[in-house]
Each structure stands twice: as C-alpha cells, then as structure tokens.
Amino acid sequence: MSTGTKNKLLTWLVILLLVANAATLAMFWLNKRKGPPPVKGVPNEFLIKELKLDSAQQQQLDVLVKEHRQKAEEIREKVRAAKDSLFELVKQTTATDSAKQAAAAACSKLTEELDVLTVNHFQKIRALCNTDQQKKFDDIIHDITRMMGQPQPPGRRGGPPPPGGPHGDGPPPPGQ
Predict the structure, then answer these.
(1) Residue 175: is it exposed, middle or buried by C-beta count within 10 angstroms (0-12/13-18/19+)?
(2) Among candidates 124, 110, 151, 149, which has minimal Cα distance to 65?
(3) In this predicted structure, what is the pLDDT of residue 32?
(4) What is the pLDDT of residue 152?
(5) Which domain does 104 fall in, by range?
(6) Can you state the angle between helices 97-127 and 55-88, rounded to 10 degrees?
(7) Residue 66 placed within a domain
(8) pLDDT tens by residue, the chain, 176 residues
C-alpha cells in the first residue's frame, strides 16, 4: 500500500472517529434527564432543616428514627434469610413450583411488613409536627423517601459501615 493511500485511509478513520465522538456527545446532551436534581443528604438533617423542628421535636425525631432503624434492621435480616432460603432452591433439582412460590411469597410478605413499618414511621413523624410543618412535610415526603433509597457515604448514619466493621474495630479489609 502506498504512502498516499495510507494517509487517505488514516484521514478517513480520523474523520469517522470525530463524527462518532460528536454523535456520542450529542446523544448525552439530548438525553439529559429533565426535572429537578435528586435530593442529597441525610433524611433526619433534611427534615430538621426543612420543617424547622424545635429541640423537643428533634429529640422525639431521634427516638422515632432509632426505633424505626432497629425494627427495620430486624425485618431486613429476616428478608435476607428468606431470600437465602429462596435461592437455596436453585441447588435442588426437585424443587417444585409451589415451593418456589411459597419461598418468594415469604420474601414478599417481609418486604410488605417493612413498607408498612416505614409508612407508620412517617405518620408518627408527621404527628409530631404542628399544622404548618405538616403541610411542608406533605410537600417533601417524596424527597425524603428518595433520600432513603440513596446510598450514604461511609460514616454517615444509615450508610454502610466503615472498613473494619461498624465501629472500625474489626479486621482491616483485604489488601491493607
């Protein structure tokens, strides 16, 4: 292949790559998600700030949150155990459809229990608010539930434990 032919081929390849990059960038710009950005932060702090809770309300909120977290974690442990049982069925070549349905239903029942616990928790929080705060609470409840679904940075309440266990007292993670 002559040098001129190689240069033409390389020129066309560069042009093709530039067009592909431009098309990719255009797709990102055109497909940007519309709407407000997701709310970030810790739900407790957000509630305190947005609802302007006084110190007595903040103490009540802390009690409610601790109670909810404890009960929710107990249910989450049961969900994990139920899902483990469900996926143990994979190993059983003789597992019946009814056994699979029963195991899946057990998982669903526990998830339902967790959802009801959370709704009741929010009703209790709303009940500790005055009338104006309740109106604001009603406006921001969806923001709060989105925040609860976001992973928290390590060290924040409600987030994953730091390396080495929840109090940093366990063995270091591999590679350290």
Answers:
(1) exposed
(2) 124
(3) 67
(4) 40
(5) 43-149
(6) 180
(7) yes
(8) 788 888 888 898 889 888 888 888 888 777 765 555 555 557 788 889 999 999 999 999 999 999 999 999 999 999 999 999 999 999 999 999 999 999 999 999 999 999 999 999 999 999 999 999 999 999 888 888 887 764 444 444 444 444 444 444 444 444 44
Tokens of 174: 């591999």
CA torsion, ordered 77, 80, 85, 91, to nearest 10 deg? -150
Helix axes 43-51, 55-88, angle to 10 degrees: 150
Residue 47: Cβ-neighbour burial (10 angstroms; 0-12, 13-18, 19+): buried
Helix (H, G, I), strand (E, B) or coil at 172: coil
Is 162:154 a contact under the CB 8 Å cutoff? yes
Say which DSSP state 163 is in.
T
Q: Do the Cβ atoms of 110 and 82 come closer than 8 Å?
A: yes
Helices (H), the chain: 3-30, 43-51, 55-88, 97-127, 131-149
Q: What CATH number does residue 100 fall under?
A: 1.20.120.1490
- Structure token digits, residue 167: 């109090």
The pLDDT value recorded for residue 60 is 95
Report the domain count for the chain: 1
